Amino acid sequence: MTEGVTKSSTGGSATGAAGFLAALRARRLLAIVRGRDPEASLRTVLALVESGVPLVEVSLSGSGALGVLRRARAELGPDAWLGAGTVLTADDAESAAAEGANLIVTPGLGAGVDTGIGLGLPVLAGVLTPTDVIAASAAGASALKVFPAAATGGPDYLKALRGPFPDLPFVPVGGVDAAAAEAYLEHGAAAVGVGSPLVGDAADGGDLDALRRRARRFVEVCA
Fold it and tell me: Is residue 125 pLDDT above 50, yes or no?
């Protein structure tokens, strides 16, 4: 079992794996921002934090994502949890860290996981199968992103996966709406990762007031 996963208590410092896990378990919600408009993406990140969603991931597959990370870090200060998502390669992890990401999120296992851990950052590593879980744990992942969650059985699959791994911090991602979020948390998820059901079209220039209303709903569900 990994050093990162075994340090999964809610205590610890405000940084590093222990701090990330404490924040994740306390808030139980990670917002995922992936947009075609960098300015709108930045506004979305800031609106989410202002609306009570303090853990935000900016996907590197979005337009101008590294610039969004850099500007969001400048706005939010050094202590905010600001993740880089869709980290696939060592270069992705290094570039994201250089722009201010203090959390690495991957869709699967690979160089992005290893480099993020090597940089001393908490890593939310993408897993799907029990073999993935074992490998991510051995690599030192801080928490385990079950992806794509909805396409592989939803809350029932999480329940089955937790059978052999009851103490590991799972974060279902993919097709998680408010009802699914509630079900995942009831089935023992440490938190949920939510993209379009929360962000909607805000990161493409859509309605920020609607985003704030959705954020309040998800915060209530995950409280």
Answer: yes
Q: What is the pTM of this model?
A: 0.93
Alpha-carbon distance 142 to 158, whole Å?
18
Catalytic residue among 3, 57, 182, 220: 57
Residue 57 among the catalytic residues: yes
Q: Which residue in the list 39, 145, 182, 186 is annotated as catalytic?
A: 145
7 among known catalytic residues: no
Query: What share of the chain has pLDDT > 90, as a percent?
Result: 93
pLDDT tens across 28-59, in order?
Answer: 999 999 999 999 999 999 999 999 999 999 99
